[in-house]
């Protein structure tokens, strides 16, 4: 009897606990993985335009090691780095007017992998058109170099965004690759899903960013919001409603847009449509980068928006301060290099996360079955995307979001 009672009390100790596992179908990004194939169906930012020069640089994107450079005419190129002749790395190659020359036997490849020259061969290679260095299409817009790493016959149009097409006086579109505004290293050292799904987690804001760590944005963000989530064709939307101390109602609309775009309304609550967009680009399964575009007359606006930790910047914090005032980086990176999703206990306020994980799994299945993922545009006349996320003041009765289970 006594033994039985003790067994009941002691249920749940860590003794014999076996950790769970990641949701493989959404976390993995390599070629042939379910979500990796979804991500490859869209143009992805891979570098800032300003950083792509005639010096070849190694880049790792979606688990693939590639070589990025700009040829002498200014065209960016993204090539598989192992030379198709006998494998020397083009990292040691030299950029020329029309391409890159391998250091070993001098083969020259243009930005689309065509072999232009085989200098040891008669007539510079009579059969050089029979080889092709593996390459990916790249293009530039808004200060970013974008790559399309998916099936060539399904290549979509690179979208334009209304907030970056309509500029106010003195405004320009600026690009940034220094990580997320909450602080952290420029290349984040954990799985991209832990960050992207956080976009659909508005309930962490009043806790982590206000009550626990002290006010990291504006005092109004400490108010626990009423939240509704809704499925969109191309992602998930959350609407967080707060009654401000002056009686006005603030509606904060944030979207996770497929496959990895964050449309996060300004946590400082500036009103209007969101003009800071961030792409969560996996480097591989355990690392990612954020490429941020923002519209401003001030190129330093983004760095001024960085979260303040008791008056300090994230990089200035010591260990004790990281523990006392954790931000997004501490919360998300500590979920693990890849989170063990099957150990999570999702509750009603995790509805946005649940919806996003379900939608990712559904879209991954759709793509694996030969379908197109949502939001792709194949016709240039449809390329303009209207951004709906933002902060809006509206009457309390106005709530246009309908949660779809
Ligand atoms: S290995 Fe590149 S030219 Fe021979
Ligand atoms: Fe956050």
Automatic annotation (TrEMBL):
Residue ranges of every copy of the Rieske domain listed in the record: 43-147
Entry GO MF terms: 2 iron, 2 sulfur cluster binding; iron ion binding; monooxygenase activity; oxidoreductase activity, acting on paired donors, with incorporation or reduction of molecular oxygen
Alphabetically ordered keywords of this record: 2Fe-2S, Iron, Iron-sulfur, Metal-binding, Oxidoreductase
Pfam families in alphabetical order: Rieske (PF00355)
InterPro entries: ARHD_Rieske_2Fe_2S, Cholesterol_7-desaturase, Rieske_2Fe-2S, Rieske_2Fe-2S_sf
Top-level lineage group: Bacteria
Protein name: Rieske 2Fe-2S domain-containing protein
């Amino acid at each position: 009897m006594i033994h039985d009672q003790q067994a009941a009390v002691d249920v749940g100790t860590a003794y014999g606990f076996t950790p769970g596992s990641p949701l493989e179908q959404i976390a993995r990004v390599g070629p042939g993985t379910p979500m990796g194939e979804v991500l490859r169906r869209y143009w992805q930012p891979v570098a800032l335009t300003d950083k792509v020069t005639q010096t070849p640089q190694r880049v790792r994107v979606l688990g693939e090691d590639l070589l990025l450079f700009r040829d002498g005419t200014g065209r960016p190129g993204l090539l598989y780095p192992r030379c198709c002749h006998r494998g020397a790395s083009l990292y040691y190659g030299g950029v020329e007017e029309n391409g890159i020359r391998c250091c070993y036997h001098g083969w020259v490849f243009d930005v689309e992998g065509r072999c232009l020259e085989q200098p040891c061969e008669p007539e510079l290679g009579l059969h050089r058109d029979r080889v092709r260095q593996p390459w990916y299409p790249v293009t530039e817009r808004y200060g970013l170099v974008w790559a399309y790493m998916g099936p060539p016959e399904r290549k979509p149009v690179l979208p334009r965004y209304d907030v970056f097409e309509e500029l106010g006086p003195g405004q320009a579109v600026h690009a940034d690759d220094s990580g997320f505004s909450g602080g952290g290293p420029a290349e984040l050292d954990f799985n991209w899903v832990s960050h992207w799904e956080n976009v659909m987690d508005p309930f962490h804001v009043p806790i982590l960013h206000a009550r626990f760590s002290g006010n990291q944005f504006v005092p109004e963000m400490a108010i626990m919001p009423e939240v509704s989530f809704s499925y969109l064709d191309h992602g998930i939307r959350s609407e967080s409603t707060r009654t401000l101390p002056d009686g006005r109602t603030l509606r904060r609309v944030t979207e996770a847009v497929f496959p990895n775009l964050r449309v996060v309304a300004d946590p400082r609550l500036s009103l209007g449509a969101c003009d800071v967009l961030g792409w969560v680009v996996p480097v591989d399964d355990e690392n990612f980068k954020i490429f941020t575009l923002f519209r401003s007359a001030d190129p330093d606006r983004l760095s001024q928006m960085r979260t303040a930790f008791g008056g300090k910047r994230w990089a200035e914090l010591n260990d004790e301060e990281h523990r006392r005032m954790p931000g997004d980086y501490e919360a998300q990176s500590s979920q693990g290099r890849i989170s063990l999703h099957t150990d999570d206990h999702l509750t009603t306020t995790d509805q946005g996360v649940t919806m996003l994980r379900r939608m990712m799994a559904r879209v991954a299945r759709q793509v694996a079955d030969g379908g197109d993922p949502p939001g792709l545009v194949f016709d240039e006349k449809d390329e303009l995307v209207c951004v709906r996320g933002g902060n809006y003041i509206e009457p309390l009765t106005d709530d246009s979001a309908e949660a779809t289970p």
